[in-house]
Amino acid sequence: MQSEIHAGRGVIIAGLSDLCPVSIPTRWISDSDALGFMAEAIAVRPALAFDTEFDSFRRSYGFTLLLIQVFDGEVVYLIDPLALSDLAPLWRIMEDPAVRKVCYALGEDVRLMKTQGCAPRNLVDVQVARQLRNRTDAGLARALEEDLGVILHKASQTSDWSKRPLTEDQLDYLTNDVVHLFRLEAGSLGYRTDAYLSSVFAEEMQLLEAVDPAPHVVQLTRAQVKKYAEPAQEALLSLLKVRDGIARALQLPPNFVVNNDLLESLMDQRDAFLAAPFVRGFHPKVRARQDYRKAFLDAVRAIPDEVVPRARTSARTREEKVAFRQARLDREALVMNKVMPPLEASLRARYEEEVVRFLLRGVRKTIGVPEPDYAAMRPYQWALVRPYLEAALPAPGGS
Length: 399
Description:
Strand order of the largest sheet: 1-3-6-5-4-7-8
Number of strands: 9
Mean pLDDT: 89
Shape: flat
Structural class: alpha/beta
Low-confidence stretches: 1-21
Largest sheet: 7 strands, mixed
């Protein structure tokens, strides 16, 4: 499929029409020959703008790549991974450090690409660049409106991108997600005049490249672990695993098979469920299949006769609890009164508010506890806060 995406259909340009192409040629890539041709064409480009559309357990089972948009400055390529068994020609370019990849808020996209076997290199996340340029933390639509006067129509934003064929409005939306990224980046490069902010940006991009693929693991939530004693935890985990296996087989989000609240309620209502199973809350395909019903029934029967709440035990004495509470209050006071004010004042003497906000995001929360996890901060954040923290601590070197 080949079409012309007219910017005026999906986007209104405010005073910048002379800077924008009237139309952008697009290429729909859904077979290996077209993918190879595209790869040859874009491999010689110094920079590409790209985005992806995916589903993460929302409409189907799994973290699924549904579309990839690539703009080389002249042509938008809309790549259909549902029709392509091998994306290696594209992945080689995405991993080529000689080609700059311009994107916007790409953390989840990189995570997904890594599950597909691609570790993209030389990333430029314009969202980070904007914040280091003293712009507000914003989504792409708001950033385009604030910086370029471009107003995107969002009617297709929540589309089911697994459906084919796509509508013209959807094609417009996909195109407009990438065609403005080069201009948005060009207006966000002011941080480069500051050596320190340039190093912060480089560190952020290294961390983006190092994002963990984080495979899907069936496990109890923290609240469930706190709520139930060990035998009940094992029974609930068994239920969750049965649900997950059925969800995978049906290609449905696990919550479509049976929602979390109903599943957890079985822990207290085992006998009532066994007396009248599957009356409500289960997907019709579960109720209709004997093997699915049996799997759930077996897991429910394994629930202990009496589900005992997890005992609230503590190894601390009353005096130790009082001391811990006081230590927490002392730590909060230290951070609020002696660490953050001088640190923020020092940064504000050099940078504007949004830049300071970006540099220190999450720092107050991380260091404001008695046993802080300093590794949770960016290395540059630890380098910023450490001198002030050590100066405020009662004993030298208490970091």
